[in-house]
Structures are given as structure tokens and as C-alpha cells.
Amino acid sequence: MVTQGTIGTQQLEWLASALDGWQTKPAIIVAHHNPRLGGDPLHSPGGLIDSQELWNVIGMRKWVKAYIHDRSYAEHQGIHILNTPATSYVADPKKSTTGWTTAKLTASGVTLTTHTTDVQHPWNGESKTLTWRGA
After folding, report:
1. CA–CA gap between residue 5 and residue 85 (Å, rounded)
2. CATH code for position 89
3. Which SUPFAM superfamilies does this one have (predicted)?
4. How many domains does the structure of the chain reveal?
5. What confidence tier does 68 reach under pLDDT thresholds 50, 70, 90?
6. Gap between the Cα atoms of 14 and 123, Å rounded
7. Whether this model's pTM surpasses 0.85
8. Structural domain that includes position 44
């Protein structure tokens, strides 16, 4: 199952303006669709049709630290692509499950811990620490 999406020019312009208004603060972007970047072959076929246009906006803004979507980890131009479990619908139960992720943010990065609705699932309690670019 491949579901594509777009951000579009209007939202990209809004995002650029919003990010420029907060240059002194690290930014984390949370979105529904994954970018087709970062070398994640599981998600690359779907995702944002205008991924490159998004990265043209966020890649140059060094205070953007992460883009959060589904459950895997990738990186593109120094920006972490953090994927978390679905909260409701799972397209392929053999590859995913439902759950949530907690994030412990620090000045130098983030530690993400996966919590699954099935406490016996192998992802439950798994943690990963990432360091921000420029930190």
C-alpha cells in the first residue's frame, strides 16, 4: 500500500516564515507523511511528493533538528528523520504495530523510547539517542 501526499507551496511558505521567526530555538517538525529522503526504503515509495521542496526550506535552516513521522530512523542533510509507531491504523502488522513514542529532549539531542500497545512486542521499551547537528 502506497499513500502519497503533498505539502504544497502555501504551507511551505508558511513553514519557512514560521521557522524564520524562531531562529534562536531548535525546531522539530511533526507531519503525517514521511519524506522520500534519508535512505529509508520501507517508506520512500510513498510519502511526500514534494519532499525535495520541503528540504529546500528546512535543510538550510540549521536550527531544524528533526522531522518526525513513522517508526524508523534516517538522516538527510543533517536532519534526523524520526519515525514513530502508528497510533491507530497499521497497514502491515508484520512490519509495524500501534503505540507511541516518548522523547526526552536535551540541548544536544533527544532520546526516543517506543511504547507499544502490545507489551510483549519486541519494540516495546526500545530506546534510541540522537545528537543534534551543530551540538
Report:
1. 19
2. 3.30.750.180
3. Metallo-dependent phosphatases
4. 1
5. confident
6. 36
7. no
8. 4-131
